[in-house]
Design brief:
It is a multi-pass membrane protein. Its main location: membrane. The protein is an alpha/beta fold. The chain contains 13 helices and nine strands. Helix 1 crosses helix 2. The longest helix has 22 residues. It starts with a helix and ends in an 8-residue tail after the last helix. 35% of the residues are buried. The structure holds ligand C2E and calcium ion (3 copies). One calcium ion binds next to loops.
Length: 278
């Protein structure tokens, strides 16, 4: 039911996708899609809240299905999880990024962050550490800072997560808590684990400017993040008013349609921010 809700939320392509998945063999669909190169990636810039200069990108996956058209990741990622295909799918994502890496190196300055979404099914897989090490070793050396975006609801086992995060930090990865504020666990998780970034869910950002009680909550979250030395990123920034509010409240980085939609590599190559800080 959750899956259905997710998929009906978006578009016609999604509805077609639902029909298709009912009919066909979903495992095979995804494996075929990998083989036939139906997936691609798009990049969305993340900018400094004060200067609006890019500090990196988040990598987002897209599926162009020959029959169903564009299938959004909210639909196929959960399918891949359910079908135990998230590891091959993420490895394919790594291949797509590696294919783009020489061009990315040209348009993103050294130290640029590469945000990659990691699903719980991969995080808990036996191959996870090896997969991450191999991927990092295949990127151009000393250029990108990989940031793994993990949602708070995926950090259930405290001991395991603590150990894994220590390992990731030793290996040079950074960790972002994704979609912060949408789970149940919330604040306590921030204290428990060492994480570098806090991504404020766009639900919070949306509410800025409306008369709700959200801003005090957001203020509290930001204060806590600052105390814990976490860098804050607001996602889903769609208006200059939101950007201003966020900057005035000390949010470090911004991401959203106001700055740029996710883009194909070719567009990213020539992209410059065209919004003003004020
Ligand atoms: P997310 O990690 O929270 O990614 C941000 C989503 O917000 C993206 O949706 C992005 O296109 C969208 N977005 C960015 N700016 C704005 C804005 O200003 N307004 C609005 N309304 N939306 C904005 P997208 O690409 O459809 O991805 C949806 C989710 O699918 C992602 O949410 C992430 O959880 C998952 N996903 C995407 N690519 C991957 C991937 O390669 N691997 C994994 N495991 N998950 C992925
Ligand atoms: Ca993300
Ligand atoms: Ca997010
Ligand atoms: Ca999400």
């Amino acid at each position: 039911a959750l899956l259905f809700g997710l998929m009906c939320g978006s578009s016609i392509g999604v509805l077609c996708f639902y029909g298709l998945m009912n009919r066909a063999n979903p495992r095979k669909e995804i494996l075929t899609a990998i083989k036939q190169n139906q997936f691609h990636v798009v990049y969305q810039p993340v900018v400094d809240a004060a200067t609006l200069q890019p500090g990196g990108v988040e990598v987002l996956m897209r599926w162009h299905h020959p029959g169903a058209g564009e299938i959004p990741p909210d639909a196929f990622i959960s399918f891949a999880e359910a079908q135990k295909l998230i590891v091959p799918l993420t490895l394919h994502l790594f291949d797509l990024i590696l294919r783009d890496a020489p061009a990315l190196k040209k348009c993103l300055p050294p130290g640029s962050k590469l945000g990659i979404n990691i699903s719980p099914g991969h995080l808990h897989a036996d191959s996870f550490k090896d997969d991450m090490r191999k991927f990092a070793a295949s990127l151009p050396p000393d250029h990108f800072q990989i940031v793994l975006e993990i949602t708070e609801r995926d950090m259930l086992n405290q001991r395991e997560a603590t150990k894994l995060f220590e390992w990731l930090h030793l290996e040079g990865f950074e960790i972002a808590v994704d979609d912060f504020g949408t789970g149940h666990s919330a604040l306590i998780y921030l204290e428990r684990f060492t994480m570098d970034y806090l991504k404020i869910d766009r639900g919070f950002v949306n509410a800025i400017g409306m008369e709700t009680v959200t801003s005090p909550v957001l203020d509290t979250v930001l204060t806590l993040a600052r105390r814990l030395n976490m860098v804050t990123i607001a996602e889903g920034v769609e208006t200059p008013e939101q950007a201003k509010w966020l900057r005035d409240h000390g949010v470090n980085l911004l991401q959203g349609y106001w700055i740029s939609r996710p883009m194909r590599l070719e567009q990213l190559m020539t992209w410059k921010p065209d919004v003003d800080p004020d």
